[in-house]
Amino acid sequence: MKKSLRDKKIIIVGAGFGGVRCALDLIAQKPPKTRIILISDKPHFEYNPTLYRAVTGRSPLEVCIPLEEIFKNKEIEVLEDFITEFDLKEKILKGKSGSRYSFDFLVLAMGSETAYFDIPGLKELSFGFKSIREALLLKKHFHELFTFYEKADLEEKVKAAHIVIVGGGATGVELAGELAVYTKRMAKNHNLDPSLITIDIIEAASRLLPALLKNISEKVESRLRELGVNVFLNRKVVKEEVEEVFLKDMELKTKTVIWTAGTRPNYLYTQIKGLDFDQNGRVKVNEFLEAEEFNDIFIIGDAAATTYSGMAQTAIHNGRYAAKIISRKIRSQSFFPYKDKKPAYAIPVGPSWAAVLIGPLRFYGRFGWLVRRLADLRYFLSILSFKKALLAFRTGKILWESCPICFND
After folding, report:
1. How far apart are CA 253 and CA 105, in angstroms?
2. What GO molecular function annotation could you give as one example from this UniProt entry (predicted)?
3. Could you tell me which residues come within 8 angstroms of residue 71 by beta carbon, excluding any fewer than 6 positions away?
4. Domain 8-41+81-114+264-343, what fold?
5. pTM of the predicted model, to two decimals?
């Protein structure tokens, strides 16, 4: 990557949807006399919308895209470090490596993390599902579990084949739909009766996808039931113990609880002096996405207290806006307040089926799935060259099984 010394230093912390978009737009806008630095604690970008596919036998290379590939031959410095100290008044950051980074403009795009809401046992015993590492751990767990219980008695097999997904939002729904098909095939490979597979999805609200229109929730619930998924609504998890999860009115025996029901802004935000937070733990920002009381320090993505915070599309929209404002500030040009943009939704539920909401338009089934896959390709094209984008997209069709039993399926 090319390195150039400039007068003004712009530092972006975090290489998720918002951070990557902000960096690419700043590079394209070429504000004069600037030095752009992207700091990430990982060498790759994770495309979370296809995370569920990495669990169910597809290549993880669709999810993980090296930052080197995204920023190759571009005017930016990409550094791998974990920022541990933030001094916003002095405009200094300190990394785990011991390096210190001064800045003129700062964009904080550190994303979110799993929230367990202090429910006993969940953090210690359940599987999270927010990163490629967690996805591959879950996949490994399934194969080890099914291999171990091939010769177990029926009661133990039933427990091993029972999967409980907590959270009826998009992540839980996507995972449930895909696992409904994948685990039956995997069970067959491991000499387990596929009819023993039981997948439950637990949602505290009165319907799945409570943030969306009611008829979309109903269509998605119907699709999950067609795939054999049990849907439990108006039920909250109260605690988890070894091989058992407790709801308010029932107990479920299982060796696999997957928690998708809560996130919160990255805990690092709470370590930064001077930030103010709303009731959801998100950072309060002014009309220009700057942290309150701190000019030239932008909060974007999941941690920003904006209307559609938590969506990848919102993080991208935030990143574009922050890049524009920084460029205009450096050029001493006028700038404009941030405006929320309503995101579209494309939620796959099992193979070749998706529910899509784009403004007033709604699509279901195979056509919805094609729209979703085109959205994936469009995103890859927005951050990679045509050839690399097509390669990243096509890797999603590659079977990737490390389990020797399932490898030859």
Report:
1. 52
2. NAD(P)H dehydrogenase (quinone) activity
3. 1, 23, 24, 27, 38, 78
4. FAD/NAD(P)-binding domain (3.50.50)
5. 0.94
